[in-house]
Design goal:
alpha/beta; Rossmann fold; transport; four-stranded antiparallel sheet; binds adenosine-5'-triphosphate; 14 strands; AAA+_ATPase; ATP binding; single chain; 28% strand; ATP-binding; 9 helices
């Protein structure tokens, strides 16, 4: 299994939902699409599963040595954004029906049901109508419906949405186990902290464009993290004097005593400490590493403000706006 997406674009009316996207998913990888609402994640997924066609570009899928222009029926499990099970049927009825559609035998269905209902803590809900289940439990049933036929590829549109932290961890573990068995996974998500623990590749989208793409290290680099330093003084200082420090490029007050500082490129931490100690007694000093989540928020904000959004922000600073 190998998926190649080449210069794919999709427009709805005057909305460019997906703009010239290219990427490759080698078999056995977990590939995550991230991005704010309307970034184009679901539009891309719908093209991949063949629900819509790209306006431009190609999708090529290599499966067992054969090339296809879309995903062959039956080789993948798809969790759609609009969940599609029968609310007036029980959990078991829904899953039996899906299993039959997938060509599983009765005993295979029974085996899969036993395994997954137990795994996802749904055994006691098996005879309940879906309409009686919480959103999170409905989501878990929907997930089982994608897993029952043990597909080589899983395409999951927001698999973590509606799940509590414990169930998010459950799903994370299940996906990691499936990957270990060779399953390829393409998922979209908003939960960056979860995805960064799981994904081999991440593609961060905004307005249908790539903001950053690669493994965690590459994506972090592309988002151009600026290291900053947090300092807390034991007593009030004349904060205006922070702007006079030779080593300080930007500063921002976090409280009366605490400040966030960014260094000039040529400045050293020693120089900073010396200058700060002349302003007051330091109670605390630490290096701040922004999380991927924070970097991403800043990058999307920057991308949205840029007059020409066909440029990616990968080489631009994400730390503007902190008044000196
Ligand atoms: N069928 C459609 N008809 C018209 N516009 C659409 C259609 N599907 C998507 N769009 C538009 O395309 C853009 C991308 O939407 P898409 O659903 O792909 O984003 P998304 O990243 O999946 O967002 P979310 O995180 O909210 O699910 C949005 O502006 C959306 O309004």
């Amino acid at each position: 299994m190998h998926i190649e997406v080449s210069h794919v674009a999709k427009t709805y009316g005057n909305v460019q939902a997906v703009q010239d996207l290219s990427f490759t998913i080698p078999g056995g990888q977990i590939f995550a699409l991230l991005g704010p609402n309307g970034a184009g994640k679901s539009s891309l997924i719908r093209m991949l599963v063949g629900l819509t066609l790209p306006d431009q570009g190609q999708i090529s899928v290599t499966l067992a040595g054969q090339q296809h222009s879309s995903l062959p029926e039956g080789c993948f499990g798809y969790l759609p954004e609009d969940r599609g099970l029968y609310l007036d049927k029980t959990v078991v009825e829904n899953l039996q029906y899906i299993g039959q559609l997938r060509g599983l035998t009765k005993s295979q269905i029974a085996e899969q049901l036993e395994h997954w209902l137990q795994r996802l803590d749904l055994l006691d809900k098996r005879k309940e109508n879906l309409s009686k289940l919480s959103k999170g439990n409905q989501q878990k049933v929907q997930l089982i419906s994608c897993l029952m036929h043990q597909p080589a590829l899983l395409i999951l549109d927001e698999p973590f949405s509606g799940l509590d932290p414990i169930n998010q961890e459950h799903v994370l573990t299940i996906l990691a186990e499936l990957k270990a068995k060779g399953t390829t996974v393409l998922l979209s998500a908003h939960q960056m902290a979860l995805v960064e623990r799981l994904a081999d590749q991440m593609m961060l989208l905004n307005k249908g464009q790539v903001v950053a793409h690669g493994n965690l290290q590459q994506v972090t680099q592309q988002l151009d993290p600026k290291v900053s330093y947090s300092v807390r003084f034991t007593a009030n200082i004349d904060s205006a004097k922070l702007g006079d420090c030779q080593s300080v490029r930007h500063w921002q007050a976090q409280s009366e005593l605490q400040f966030l500082l960014e260094l000039h490129d040529h400045a050293t931490v020693n120089q900073l400490l010396q200058e700060l100690s002349q302003l007051g007694t330091l109670a605390d000093f630490s290096r701040q590493q922004p999380s991927l989540h924070d970097l991403y928020l800043a990058a999307v904000q920057h991308h949205n403000q840029a007059p020409d959004t066909t440029q990616t922000i990968s080489t631009q600073s994400i730390s503007e706006g902190v008044a000196a």
